[in-house]
Specification:
Blueprint: H1 2-23, H2 28-35, H3 37-43, H4 57-77, E1 102-109, E2 117-122, E3 128-132, E4 137-142, E5 147-152, E6 160-170, E7 173-182, E8 187-192, E9 197-202, E10 209-214, E11 220-224, E12 229-234, E13 239-244, E14 259-268, E15 273-281, E16 286-291, E17 296-301, E18 312-320, E19 323-330, E20 334-339, E21 346-352, E22 360-366, E23 371-376, E24 381-386, E25 394-396, E26 399-402, E27 417-422, E28 425-428, E29 432-436, E30 443-452, E31 455-459, E32 471-472, E33 478-482, E34 489-494, E35 498-504, E36 507-510, E37 515-526, E38 532-537, E39 543-547, E40 551-552, E41 556-564, E42 571-581, E43 584-594, E44 603-608, E45 613-617, E46 621-632, E47 638-643, E48 650-653, E49 657-658, E50 662-669, E51 677-680, E52 682-687, E53 692-695, E54 698-702, E55 706-711, E56 716-720, E57 723-735, E58 741-748, E59 754-759, E60 762-763, E61 771-780, E62 786-795, E63 800-810, H5 815-821, H6 827-840, H7 844-857, H8 861-870, H9 872-898, H10 903-933, H11 940-967, H12 970-1002
Parallel strand pairs: 36-43, 45-54, 56-63
Antiparallel strand pairs: 1-30, 1-34, 2-3, 3-4, 4-5, 5-29, 6-7, 7-8, 8-9, 9-28, 10-11, 11-12, 12-13, 13-27, 14-15, 15-16, 16-17, 17-26, 18-19, 19-20, 20-21, 21-25, 22-23, 23-24, 24-31, 30-31, 32-33, 33-34, 35-37, 37-41, 38-40, 38-42, 39-41, 42-43, 44-46, 46-50, 47-49, 47-52, 48-50, 51-54, ...
Helix pairs in contact: 1-2, 1-4, 5-8, 5-9, 6-9, 7-12, 8-9, 9-10, 10-12, 11-12
Length: 1005
């Protein structure tokens, strides 16, 4: 501290004399070198007058005044020269929060000797995990029972460094996974606490991974300190992405930049959401950040501040006024805060750690305390940076670039690039060993110095403890390893248990024979709550006391009731509320004043003699019994009034004026138009002396029912496209409802092909249960396939009711048959579907034939089905027309079944049979009539040629059918199967006519 004060004085002397001699015209270069040296001259360059001016009386006067100021500074600094505190820079962090005055230190010895514990973290179960750098182990400590479990890392001499815990969901269970870096063996490791599996991914040689972080996407980020690279590992796929930093080494293991700390921050702003990967370059003297979404890199060169080498190591990130900031420890004995770029630069603020050569490292951010904790490795101190008030720093201009392979301007200089590879993992089950350890007796740790520059230091009992990293658990306790091989401990700094009590009010005044109460509040100041017991000391004679809650865990509230008797002495009595908890006691003083009885003034009370609530229908009446009682003093007449009566109602008291004590009844009379609702009736009593009391019974007026119900027998309807259905709707009145109900319907989604008609559309049910019905016709035209919600609304002058029906409109695969027989479930329709699906479509020929048949059938069937749905006579005619066809198809189905062992042959026989018989039944008569009419012009030669042509065509088609079956020619089968059926249809219609003509012309003339 003395050295720093003297140094500042000497700087002031140099500044004064430099300016003075500069006024006298001495050469600046000579003076700057002589007084400040080549570096210190830069620190005061803004205080130096650069242009020499002529000597004047004014200048000499200024030199004299400055000399006096310097002498006074020297005298003021003399007492500080004997101070034991070290010098610090001016306070850049206003100390807005009072630091914790005491911490409780507890230590546990690590079972394995000389472990050199390094990285540390906590999990959601309150367990502590750490790496043993020297003994190549991963360890877990359970503070609840003092149990250590250690696992030997499979890879020998891996030197595990930093560690990070995260929670993952495996088979609907929450599982803790630990990720850590293996510095010497160039590995990223994951340990699964549920299976004890250790998985390792091997990085390129010379990587020397140090800092590690697992982000919200479960991506693992780490700093490859030996290759000047930031890496990301997706453990699910083994994908390794590496961002090589500008100026990176070309010799792995011999870094130029040495990135060390890494922290991933998800930033959500109104304009974008991004992941910021912060990192430090210990040798490069830079702070860096990669924006993952855009692959943009930002670098802050600390060397541009002109202060020398910072050697930044650990880093954490947070937000300040919604903008991202980073907090950094460095090897130059500083804690720094770096703000986000604001367009004109970034605010940078650093604070000197009060103790010199502290070796600050191992940052953790404590959001509940607005503080960053860190370990001072060289001096055995745990430090705390208050981050409540920032910034007051200087601007530092960052540089930007975009990492290849993305194309952008400017691009990062070679070798800055992003590469991706796949790496494999190996999984083992390392051997574990568990051992219970007894904790040391807690030791109180107090503030060593601070807050200075926003930093408060807590010195550990052993200055050579060598703390490395700090973790904060859910109870706000600090955990850190003491890496000294001799100590070899895990330590916890917790807030000691402190509490306080207070009474409200502090003083009560009563008469003998009366009671009073005090509210006792027990609050916890720090630490974990413990059981506390309350008692009352120094109570006077003939006084009884009772705590509503005599024992509890702070914070809690207890009511202290004090009761006196007529013989209790009058006077002022101080009493003590005594609280004992956790080996400490706290007192709070209350005062009880017992005075002589005063003249009793008149008072009365009002209470309900019976229920305080009543419910009546419009037009009814209600009664409330009320008792007006004398409380004290000489009785006076009390007059009663009531307010808050429903409009259109009236009231009366059976006795509105009387001398307490007396009973009365409040009667309230409503009419049919009194508004429904709940009313608080205020009954006011006014004594002759003007003393007012009130009581408030509650009256509920229910309105007479006036409503109707809208019901339908169904809520779900299935419709075939092009059909309609009728539903009966019922409107029933309820209570005194009367009037017209208008019906309407709306479809969702809207479709012009869907319509609903009500006949009639306006109904008028009679009151008190009257019923009126209407018919609702729903029509689904073409292009209405899908699910629709039909909302039916009935509207009257007062209420409005609705009913919802779900309509499922679909295309019937047998449109004409469905329309003819009225339902898809009709036996005839079921037969057609079964014949098609279970026989025809299961063959190669049949399925291809149905492609052509469906194209032809659905070109006209929707229109025919819609016409049948709207014309009952057409349905009767269609049944007559379809009857022979269905009989033929039943015969064909039986034929198919007979040849079922050869389905493709069965399909051919069934198809030819259907074509022949249908042609005979439906085309035979028309063709015969035509041939008979033209018999004179059709000779035997023409009939022969026609027959031969049909036979040849049949043979060709049959041959094509066989070839298509063998070669599975789908397109050919569509054409050939259709041709065979059409040819059979034609032959069925022609052959009877040709046979009759042949027989007719063979008769003798």
């Amino acid at each position: 501290m003395a050295e720093s004060h003297l140094k500042r004085v000497m700087v002031c002397v140099r500044i004064v004399w430099f300016n003075a001699t500069n006024q006298l015209g001495l050469p600046q270069i000579y003076l700057k070198t002589l007084l400040f040296g080549p570096y210190e001259g830069q620190r005061v360059r803004h205080m130096i007058v650069r242009k020499p001016r002529a000597v004047s009386i004014r200048s000499l006067t200024a030199v004299g005044m400055l000399t006096v100021i310097v002498l006074l500074s020297i005298l003021a600094s003399i007492p500080a020269a004997f101070s034991t505190n070290l010098a610090v820079a001016p306070n850049a962090y206003p100390d807005a929060v009072t630091p914790i005055s005491k911490l409780s230190l507890t230590e546990w010895g690590i079972p394995t000797a000389n472990a050199s514990a390094y990285g540390i973290t906590t999990d959601s179960d309150g367990k502590i995990w750490f790496t043993e750098n020297a003994t190549n182990k991963l360890a877990r400590f359970d503070p609840a029972n003092g149990n250590f479990t250690e696992w030997n890392i499979t890879t020998p001499n891996s030197q595990p460094h930093n560690i990070f815990s995260t929670i993952v969901t495996v088979s609907s269970s929450q599982v803790t996974q630990l990720f850590f870096t293996e510095y010497a063996s160039n590995r990223i490791a994951r340990f699964d606490s549920s299976t004890n599996n250790l998985t390792e991914w091997v990085l390129p040689s010379g990587s020397n991974p140090a800092g590690i972080f697992v982000d919200d996407n479960k991506d693992v980020w780490f700093a490859e300190s030996g290759r000047d690279t930031i890496g990301r590992l997706k453990t699910g796929t083994g994908n390794l992405t590496e961002w090589k930093l500008p100026g990176a080494t070309s010799s792995p293991g011999s870094p130029s930049l040495k990135p060390w700390g890494v922290y991933v921050q998800t930033v959500t702003l109104p304009t974008y959401t991004n992941r910021f990967v912060w990192f430090t370059e210990s040798l490069g003297n830079k702070i860096g950040r990669i924006e993952v979404n855009s692959n943009r890199m930002t670098l802050w060169d600390l060397g541009s501040l002109g202060v020398g080498q910072f050697q930044p190591n650990d880093i954490v990130a947070g937000t300040y006024q919604t903008l991202p900031v980073a907090i950094i420890t460095d090897g130059n004995n500083k804690i720094s805060v770096l703000g986000n770029d604001t367009g004109g630069g970034s605010l940078y603020q650093d604070a000197n750690v009060p103790t010199l050569n502290s070796g600050a490292m191992g940052l953790v951010y404590d959001s509940k305390r607005n503080a960053a904790w860190f370990a001072e490795n060289n001096v055995g101190i745990i430090g705390n940076l208050n981050t409540t008030n920032i910034f007051a720093g200087q601007l530092i201009t960052p540089s930007y670039c975009t990492i290849s392979p993305l194309a952008a301007t400017p691009t990062c200089p070679t070798p800055a690039a992003m590469t991706s590879t796949l790496i494999s993992a190996t999984t083992t089950q390392p051997v574990s060993r568990s051992q219970l350890q007894t904790p040391s007796a807690p030791v109180t740790v107090t503030v060593k110095q601070g807050p200075l520059n926003g930093i408060t230091e807590y010195a550990l009992p052993t200055t050579t403890a060598r703390p490395t990293y700090v973790a904060v658990d859910s109870g706000e306790s600090l955990w850190f390893p003491e890496g000294n091989s001799t100590l070899n401990k895990i330590a916890r700094l917790g807030v000691p248990y402190l509490f306080q009590i207070s009474a409200s009010p502090n003083t009560r005044t009563i008469n003998p024979g009366q009671s009073t109460s005090f509210t006792i509040s027990v609050t916890i100041l720090s630490g974990a709550t413990q059981s506390l017991t309350l008692s009352l000391l120094n109570a006077p004679s003939n006084v009884n006391s009772n705590f509503s809650t005599p024992t509890g865990n702070p914070p809690f509230t207890s009511n202290l009731t004090i009761t006196t008797t007529n013989s209790t002495a009058k006077g002022t009595f101080p009493m003590i509320i005594h609280a004992v908890s956790g080996g400490q006691s706290v007192d709070s003083t209350i005062t009880l004043i017992i005075q002589a009885p005063q003249p009793i003034p008149f008072d009365y009370s009002m209470s309900m003699a019976g229920p305080s609530t009543a419910t009546v229908a419009q037009g009814g009446s209600a009664s409330f019994g009320i008792v007006v009682s004398l409380v004290s003093g000489t009785p006076q007449a009390v007059n009663l009034t009531a307010s808050g009566i429903p409009s259109g109602s009236s009231y009366s008291f059976s006795k509105s004026v009387g001398v307490p004590t007396y009973n009365t009844t409040l009667n309230i009379f409503t009419n049919a138009n009194s508004p429904g609702g709940t009313y608080t009736i205020t009954v006011t009593g006014t004594s002759a002396g003007g003393l007012i009391h009130t009581i408030a019974p509650i009256l509920t007026v229910t309105e007479l029912p006036r409503d109707f119900n809208l019901t339908a027998p169904v809520t779900d309807i299935s419709l075939v496209q092009g059909s309609r259905t009728d539903i009966t709707l019922t409107i029933s009145s309820f209570g005194y409802f009367s009037g017209n109900v208008s019906l309407g319907g709306a479809f969702s989604p809207a479709n012009s092909g869907m319509s609903v008609v009500f006949t009639p559309s306006v109904l008028s049910p009679q009151p008190n249960g009257g019923i009126a019905q209407t018919s609702m016709e729903v029509t689904a035209e073409k292009n209405t396939v899908g699910t629709y919600t039909l909302t039916i609304t009935g509207t009257s002058s007062s209420p409005s009711r609705s009913h919802t029906v779900t309509l499922n409109v679909h295309v019937s695969e047998c449109l004409i048959a469905t329309a003819t027989y009225g339902s898809e479930l009709a036996p005839q329709v079921e037969f057609l579907k079964t014949f098609r699906d279970r026989q025809v479509l299961r063959t190669f020929a049949g399925s291809n034939f149905m492609i052509a048949f469906n194209s032809w059938y659905y070109s006209f069937s929707p229109a025919v089905a819609q016409y049948e749905n709207s014309n009952p006579t057409a349905r009767v005619v269609a049944k007559v027309v379809l009857y022979p066809l269905i009989s033929v198809l039943q015969l064909s189905s039986s034929t198919f079944s007979a040849f079922g062992s050869e389905p493709e042959f069965a399909a051919l026989i069934a198809g030819l049979l259907v074509g022949l018989v249908v042609g005979l039944l439906y085309l035979g008569l028309p063709i015969f009539t035509f041939l008979w009419t033209a018999r004179c012009r059709i000779g035997s030669t023409a009939r022969y040629r026609a027959t031969r042509s049909l036979a040849i065509l049949f043979i060709l088609l049959l041959t094509g059918y066989v070839v298509s079956e063998l070669l599975r020619l789908a397109l050919a089968m569509i054409l050939i199967s259709s041709g065979l059926v059409l040819l059979a249809l034609l032959m069925g219609g022609l052959l009877p006519g040709l046979a009759v003509l042949d027989r007719f012309q063979r008769k003798p003339q």
